[in-house]
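To: structure desk
From: M.T.
Subject: fold request, one chain
Message: Could you run this one when you get a chance? Sequence is below, nothing fancy, just the single chain.
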Amino acid sequence: MSPAARTAPGPARRLLPRAARFLRSRRRVLVRLGGWSLLESAQTFLVGYGVAQALDRGFLAGDTGTGLAWLAVAAAATVVGGLAVRGVFRGLADLVEPLRDGLLRRVVTRALHGAVAEPARADSSSVSRLTHQTELARDSFAGLVLVLRSFVFTAAGALAGLASLHPLLLLVVLPPLVLGLLLFTATLVPMAARQRDFLDADEALSTRYGAVAAGLRDVVACGAERRTAGEADALVATEVGAARSLARWAAARTVALGVAGHLPIVLLLFATPWLLERGLTAGALLGALTYLTQSLLPALRTLMSALGAAGTRLLVILDRLVGEDPPHGAPAAAEPATEPSTAPPTALPTALPAARSAAGSRVELRSVTFAYGPGAQPVLREVDLTVEPGEHLVVVGPSGIGKSTLAALVAGLLVPDRGEVLVDGAPPRAAGRGAGEPARQRVLIPQQAYVFTGTLRENLLYLCPDDLPEGPPDGTPAGMPDGGPGAGPEEERLAASVAAVGLGPLADGLGGLDAVVDPAALSQGERQLIALGRAHLSPAPLVLLDEATCHLDPEAEARAERAFADRPGTLVVIAHRISSAHRADRVLVMDGARATAGSHRELLGRSPLYRDLVGRWHTGRDGRPAARPGREGAPA
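Reply: Done. Structure tokens follow.
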């Protein structure tokens, strides 16, 4: 442990000023709680005292009426104590709910400040603080207030009753009671440390699971499933170990409870002859046992259970939730990253990746029906479609009509319930397995583009690792733009795809093809450009773009689609803008009941749905706000 850590104030000292301010602002609530608790203390006093007097002055003296009267007093005190408990709970809500509301505001405020200061950083632990730890803090605080209040006033009533019965009773009861409380107090600090370890492990596990969920494609792409699972298992084991250590310290409460609660009873029975010799009556002895067994022992058991668990948990949780004060005033929100734009297309390099079919793949759908689940309505029903090799097809239709499902079926990610999907005469899944690398047969770029942490070159070569070298060719001077003088033919093919999709300005801004890419620092449009460059460079004869340009501005989208249209192979595009349909050889209109294919001009004449979609694209009649350049909404 560092010197700074050793000299830093503990959580109790850090929280004490805040706790004092919180309680001072609620004096009236505390006064009401104290008033109701005094009635509970009076109940404790009267129950033991009434039993003692009923025996000494009533039953042992031969006066049954007096004995019954004192028992009636004890019973009435119990009823009054019940009314006091109801009043206590009413006041408790006025104390506990403001604490919870304040903690929620603080957690949300700190999370928002952190998100504004570091937009790329996702703090998954805030979920645990907001949904789990604030509720634990509220429940723990409520239980702690109830238990501490009950113990203090119950102990006061019981000790006052013992003193009123005979002062020597305090000599027997107080020493083990104080010793047990001291032993219990000594366990609080280690238990707080173990509780902090447990919460640290819980937050670490939550953060790790959040990171794994966000980067699941990275994990699978890198073949790191076993390693990731091992790291998660280690965090789970750490949390289990912290929980077991906490349980061991909780078991130490049993020893303290035995000393403070059970030892006084044993000593009282052991000292009975000595006490009787000094004037203690049988009624006083029975009253003392009543105080110990019916009041002090239950109060001690509840105190040690609640303070040992809820108390240390509350101390740690409040220290974590409160922490440092958030900065005054939120920092200015960062400007949204602008989507990369490109200049009007100029003459592009003509070199293209090797090992690619010049004609492209033939795609056939034969009476294809698909539903997401046995009882669900089919998304596609009896769809027939043929895409010829080298054809450029655009798919349009209302949102949720099944366009992305169609792309996933062609890519082999889904299997039809009925019918056949064939790519070059074979089911796409079987074709991928037979070829050994599905990426060599077809490439699907979804709306959420995949970019992993690595160099830009590695991201671009991800779908063709064997076709191009992993680094610049020997002899390329450091700092020379890739594809410049001195570059080999493979490097020229890489530069050709970069230029074709308009990735050059982004590559220059990142520092070249060998610059390390941080996916979290890229905009959605920048990630899409990198994914488009990867697909353009791949040897696949079939490319599926599922709204893969939706985060680009119209000019950048047009350049990217022209690049793929000029690229040998078959191209299927899920349309984002009407301009995509203008550039296609054919357009497929999906309306749920049937699919209609034809040219843009043909469909304007014979498809009411297509005319409606074109009208919405032009006028924004879909009810959504007008889109900003580079972020236009798609009706499909």
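Reply (cont.): The radius of gyration is 38 Å. Let me know if you need anything else for the meeting.
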